[in-house]
Design brief:
Layout (H helix, E strand, L loop, with lengths): L10 E5 L4 H12 L3 E6 L2 H9 L3 E4 L5 H5 L1 H4 L5 E6 L16 H23 L2 E10 L15 H21 L3 E6 L17 H14 L7 E3 L9
Parallel strand pairs: 1-2, 1-4, 2-3, 4-5, 5-6, 6-7
């Protein structure tokens, strides 16, 4: 990985910023002097974004009308960094227990269809030399697969990785596009037994994003910037 640590984003958009990783990204980039826009579904989430130093937008990835409204909310913006972070885990399965249709729809609509819907709008709002990252998971890696636990979540993150690969094809030359595994972080999703504290985990991801060189485009990486197999 090349070192481009002088890269400092001044305009940032975080999709899915009401809590956890997304909210921490808002707080840390705002503290570093960036103008940060973050999306949330409800008033409580928007209030947390504003309290963290960001500017809150309303977005529910599972609602077509809400997603359609994102384009006008960011019309005229030129983001140096877009982070697509929104995600849900779904059922905590340990084997081949089939999800219900409702569980499948919630996870796939949020983790896969949501990013597919917002990418056209955010793609039009990228500054020259921008970076675009989706928050994926090594649970979506088929090359590293050693467990079937949470297989619906795994399927959704594998699909998200595919979406990132296609976005990288379309946005080549306009933005550096990557999928990031954040590690197992203590958040509402990660739970109290997770390995990593939230604040240093997000700081590490920020440093990794800043250090990527052009060769990282279209890749899948861990928090230290090491390439992961799809």
């Amino acid at each position: 990985m090349s070192t481009h640590s002088s890269w400092i984003p001044r305009q940032v958009l975080v999709i899915g910023a009401s809590r956890g990783l997304g909210l921490a990204f808002v707080a840390q980039y705002a503290a570093a002097g960036a103008r940060v826009l973050g999306t949330a579904r409800d008033a409580e989430g928007r209030a947390r974004i504003e309290a963290a130093g960001g500017h809150a937008l309303t977005l529910d990835l599972t609602r077509t009308a809400s997603v359609a409204g994102l384009a006008w909310q960011i019309d005229g913006e030129a983001f140096d960094l877009v982070l697509i972070n929104a995600g849900v885990y779904g059922p905590r399965s340990s084997g081949l227990q089939p999800p219900t249709e409702a569980e499948f729809d919630q996870v796939m609509h949020t983790n896969v269809l949501g990013p597919m819907r917002v990418l056209p709008a955010v793609g039009e709002a990228l500054a020259p030399g921008a970076r675009l990252a989706v928050i994926s998971s090594r649970m979506g890696s088929m090359g590293l697969r050693s467990s079937a636990g949470g297989w619906l979540y795994r399927a959704s993150k594998a699909a998200l990785n595919s979406v990132l690969c296609d976005a990288a094809q379309v946005l080549r030359g306009r933005a550096l596009c990557v999928a990031l595994h954040p590690g197992w972080v203590r958040t509402d999703m990660g739970g109290p037994e997770a390995d990593l504290d939230l604040t240093p985990a997000v700081a590490a991801l920020r440093a990794t994003l800043a250090a990527f060189g052009p060769e990282a485009h279209g890749g899948f990486f861990d928090p230290q910037g090491e390439r992961l197999p799809w």
